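This part of the workshop introduces the protein records we will be handling. The question running through the whole workshop is how a given chain folds. To make this concrete, we reproduce a full record directly below:
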Amino acid sequence: MKKRLNILLLGLAIFTMLFSSGNIVFSLILGRDVDSLINLSLLGFVVTAVLVPILGLSSVILLKGDYKKLLDYYGKTASFIIIFVIMVFLLGPMGSLTRGVIVSYAAFEYYVPSVPIWLYTFFFVILIYLCTYKESTVVELISKILGPIKLILLFAIIALGLFTLKAYEKSSFTPVMSVFHGFHEGYYTLDLLGTIFFAYLIYNGMQIKFGPKKESKDIILICLKAGFVCAILLGAVYYAFGNISAAWSSQFKNAAQEQLLTLIAIKVLGQWAGFIANVAIIVAIFVTSIATTTVFADYASNILLKKRVSYNATLIATLLIVLLFANLKFSGIMEIIGPIATLLYPSLIVLSFLNILNVFYGLKTIYISVLSWATLIITAFFQYIYTSI
C-alpha cells in the first residue's frame, strides 16, 4: 500500500512539474482552432504532448537520471552545445520559464491591471527563490504540498467547465489536418525536454527518499510507473481543456494566446469561480517554475560553469534573467522557442527511443549517433532549405 502511495505521489509530482503555461495555452489554442474536431485533433496532440514526453522520461530514468549521458550520443562537443541551447532558449530564462511568468501575469493583470509586469515578476521570482534555494527538498515540496494544491485547483476548473459545454461549431479543418495540427501544437508544450531534464530531479529525489539501501533498479521501476500515472493525468486534463475551449471557441478567436484561459474561465464560470481558476493558473505555473529553475541553476553551476560558481549564485542569476526577459510578450518568447523546438524534437524522440532499445537489447553506439544526427539533419533540411526552394 505504501509503495502504491509513493508511486501515486511521484506521478503527481511529475505531472505538477510538467503541467504549466504551455500545456494550458496550447490545449486551449487547439480547441479554439479545430472546434468540432477537437477530440480527433487531441489524438495527435497526445502523441507529442503525452506519449513522447513519457518516452523521454523513461529513457533518462533508465540512465539513472543522467540526461548528459543520453545527449552525449551526439558527441561531447555537440552535446554541450545542444544542452546549452535547450537549457537557455527552451526550458530556461529565455524560454518556457519566462513564458510561464508571462502567462501567469496575464491571469493576475485581469484583476489588478495597475501592477506592471516587472513588479509582479519581482515578487514571483522571490517566491521561487525561497522554494528552490535548498535543491534537495524541491521534489518533496512539490509532491507533498504544492502538487496536491495544484491538482485540486485544476480539476475544480475542469469539473465546473465540463458542465457548461455547448454545441461545437463546425470545424474548418479536415479530419487529417486536425490530427496533424494537434501533433504540431503538442511540440510547443516542450514536455519532452521537461521530462528529459526533470528526470535528474526525479531520480535523485527518490534516492534521497529511499536511501542507499534501495537498489537502483527498484528506484527506476518506481519512477517509470509514476511516469504512466503522470501520462493519465496529462491526457485527462488535455481532454477537458481542449473540449472546454472548443465549446466556447467562437467568442475567443481573436484573444491573445496568454489570456485564453483567463477569459474562458471568466466567461464559463463567472467572476468568482473565474477568480479561483486564475489563481489555479498562477499556482500551476509557479510549481513548474520551481522545478525548471532548479534544473537550470543546477546545470549552470555543475556543468556549464564546472562548479566554479555555487548553485545559489546561479539560481539568483537565473531569476534575474527572468526578470529582464519578462517584458517580452508570449508571442515574443514563442519566436525564440518555436524554431528551435521544431528543429530538435524529432531527433530527440529518435534518440530517446534508441536509448531504450540500447538499454534492453544492446545497440552499437555508432548506430544511435548516426540515426540521431541523420534525423536532426533531415529536419533542418526541410525546415530551413526545402521550404525556401
Q: What stands out?
A: The chain has a mean pLDDT of 83. The chain is about 80% helix and 0% strand. The radius of gyration is 20 Å. The longest helix spans residues 260-304.
